[in-house]
Amino acid sequence: MEATLTFLGTGTSMGVPTLGCGCAVCTDARLPGSLNRRTRPSILLAYGGDAAKGRSPHHVLIDSGPDFHAQATRLNLTYIDAVLYTHGHADHVLGMDDLRPLSFRLPGGLPLFADEATAQVLERVFEYTFRKENRYPTSARVILHRIPEEAGDAIELFGAKFIHVPVTHGPTTIVGYRFGNAAYLTDLNDIPETSLALLEGLDILILDALRREPHPSHAHVEKSIELVRRIQPQRAFFTHISHDLDHALTNASLPSPIQLAFDGQQLSFDIAPC
Ligand SMILES: [Zn+2]
Ligand SMILES: [Zn+2]
Ligand SMILES: [Zn+2]
Predict the structure, then answer these.
(1) Which of 5, 63, 95, 163 has its CA 20 to 30 A from that of 72?
(2) CA-CA distance, 36 to 21, in Å (whole number)?
(3) Across the 274 residues of the chain, what is the mean pLDDT of every consecutive 10-residue run?
(4) Which residue in 112, 4, 107 sits closest to 68, CA to CA?
(5) CA 263, 229, 205: angle at the middle one, nearest 5?
(6) Upstream peptide bond of 273 is cis (omega within 30 degrees of 0)
(7) Can you tell me the distance from the alpha carbon of 129 to that of 147, in angstroms, rounded to the nearest whole number?
(8) Which helix (H) or strand (E) holds 193?
(9) What residues have their beta carbon closer than 5 A to ion ligand 1?
(10) For the whole model, what pTM was predicted?
């Protein structure tokens, strides 16, 4: 099944430009249309549907960060069918409340999927949305589902499988997802052997690459290149990028088939069968 992946945001937690920073990349990022302008990380998948019968493709969002409103506006996004979460850090969950108008369109509510740790963060941060009694009446109409916790476990959404690929993010293990022949692994500094086994035969690998220097909870460029060489996808895209990496200069230095992703970039791939 043909799918389109859109990078809604490719920046690190602080975004690029970084507030208060006057470096060359941040200065360029303040110019309209700059490929160095990076909002907080998230992707949108569109697949299925039937244009001939007037049925729109399904929209699955991975993470709703603090820039979700601007990202959805830029893309003229009018509906979402489900949201998958990678982990509970602010740059990945704080846009949950902006799902409200889209959640009201769905009679049964908008399904959210997260592991136990992330679900607990969502329930704490957005307590007024998830409380059982005296729920704030106009809060998002969302239904939070726990995903299976084991590596290789999958959930099925609209005919595509989303496989849980655990990755190491500093002191924690968070959720990466494989869907068809693509994988989205944001926020990691390493990938366990058991997860590498779930990443064979990929067309597209999307991987965290924060900056040039090593970092305790994010892969740096050299580490991510090493991971791409092990996994051997057809195409690799780095995301969760800080102001350390100029788009054009870094792309010119990266070995094939690796590129920095950029906000708004779209890729086509096969989402099924897994
Ligand atoms: Zn992050
Ligand atoms: Zn800067
Ligand atoms: Zn994180």
Answers:
(1) 163
(2) 13
(3) 97 98 98 97 95 91 98 97 98 98 93 98 96 86 96 97 98 98 97 98 97 96 98 98 98 98 98 69
(4) 112
(5) 35
(6) yes
(7) 20
(8) helix 193-196
(9) 13, 91, 187
(10) 0.97
